[in-house]
Amino acid sequence: MVKYQQGDVLFKQIDPQEFRKERDKNLEVSSQGRYNSYHTMEITSQYYNDKEPEGELDGGKCTVALGEATGHHHSFMQGSPGVVVTAYKQGWLNSETPARCHYVAVEKGDATVTHQEHKPITLPSGYYRVEIVREFDHLGQMERAVVD
Amino acid sequence: MAFANANFGNFDQRNLRNIMDTFTSEAPKRTDSVLYKQYINGSRYVDFSGNAYKINLFTDYSTQTWGKNRKRMITQRPDGIIDVKKQTIVLHDWQLFEEASQALGPEFYDYFKISNRWSLEMNAGTPDMMRADGFKELKCKNSDVNTWFPGIKIDLVNYNVLNKPPKKYKNTADNWKKLQRLRANGRARARKGNDRALARLDMYKRTGDASVIEMTDAFKLFNVSDRREVIEMFGMDTILASRDTKVLDKDTVDERPYELVSVEIEDVGSIKGVRWCNYLRMVNPSTDEIHFEGVPNTVATVKQALGWRDGEIEPKWNGANNPRTMEGEYIKPKILT
User: Fold this and answer.
1) In Å, how far are A62, B68, B335 from A100, measured between CA atoms?
2) How many C-beta atoms surround the C-beta of residue A56 within 10 A?
3) Is the pTM of this model over 0.90?
4) What is the ipTM of this complex?
5) Strands of B245-253's sheet, edge to edge?
6) Which of A68, B127, B194, B289 has the greatest number of C-beta atoms within 10 Å?
7) Domain extent at residue B24
8) Closest chain B residue to A71 measured between Cα atoms?
9) Considering the domain boundaries, does residue B36 fall inside one?
10) pLDDT in tens, A40-60
């Protein structure tokens, strides 16, 4: 597995087929004739640079994680011409996690993720699972995603 | 032998008194027997069979004809026995409590509620490790019994529990509750510690008075950005010098130094009043700032700590009496900034 790390955010590259399987799970109907809403993947934001931003998704910036104390954010704001970066959220998202999405699809080129306190990294075209590193709180005896 | 394949009535009418009345009227003699199947949902059910003296209860799992238990016979001990004359019920299967509102009626469920409690662990990887096995917690309205145990006997007139749990069950429940209390207290202390440290940091930001900040705030603040401010103020080495510390492992990944440090921190909840806790000390490669993040005490090396942090290495369960080992491998990031 190839992974990229910018501070506390991990981008773990996944197989395109695995991603498509996850994305299309919400289209599957269970044996009881219901859609599984937990698996529903929604687009949270999108970045593209080949046309003007439009609609709610704001094509100018694609934020994958947000720092609650500093307001700093890991966002895709640059990329090769024609690149499309789409962030997906899967089902419900725990409000305590700083992650804003679970998957990122970088298509039609390379894209650069930036942060105020970290050097930018360029992700090649592909599909990535977004994870936040965890830490162990010894006083509270519990593990949790790192918050900043 | 009469057979019926219907419920005892709608949900509101369903209660143990109606069930007993049904058997009393339909099978008044000891030699009589009727069978009722009470559905608890679309597929699960409880069989009631007996007469005006004794009613046996079998859950569908006990009488199943599929799966690994398919050879089990209905001649086994019932999962529950109602003594109609003495107005008592003896339960041998906890599932009957779980299904109580559907199988035994809402009135019974009003008096008894069962919850599954998973096993707990505290201070894993240290000599102070505490562990409690899980159990089925029972909340009884009219009794102080707090755990399920096989053979629990209940008075159906006032819903009292008539027997006491065996020592094994009682000790398991007491041990779990004690550990749960310690854990809840620990978490409350952590939250309070974070709130107070945050208030001090806020005061410092507003007044510029650095004396309000305590060195131990570096361990108390939840937010790593806030924590970093405290570390910058005192310096990590000064903070560590103020406490007993041990460097467990040093490593360099991509020319970046990492240290796994064990620090003695105060813990009023522990027996000795202090506890050794593992932290990973690292440097932000982009800004050269020092970061300090907690890792479980079960990790022994920097690589294990990094792997655990990234979700690639997990502690492996080796049984209740054996320490956990770490399983998995750390994958080095292609780019780290």
Assistant:
1) 10, 44, 21
2) 7
3) no
4) 0.85
5) B245-253, B256-266, B274-283, B290-294
6) B194
7) 2-165
8) B225
9) yes
10) 677 777 888 776 666 655 666
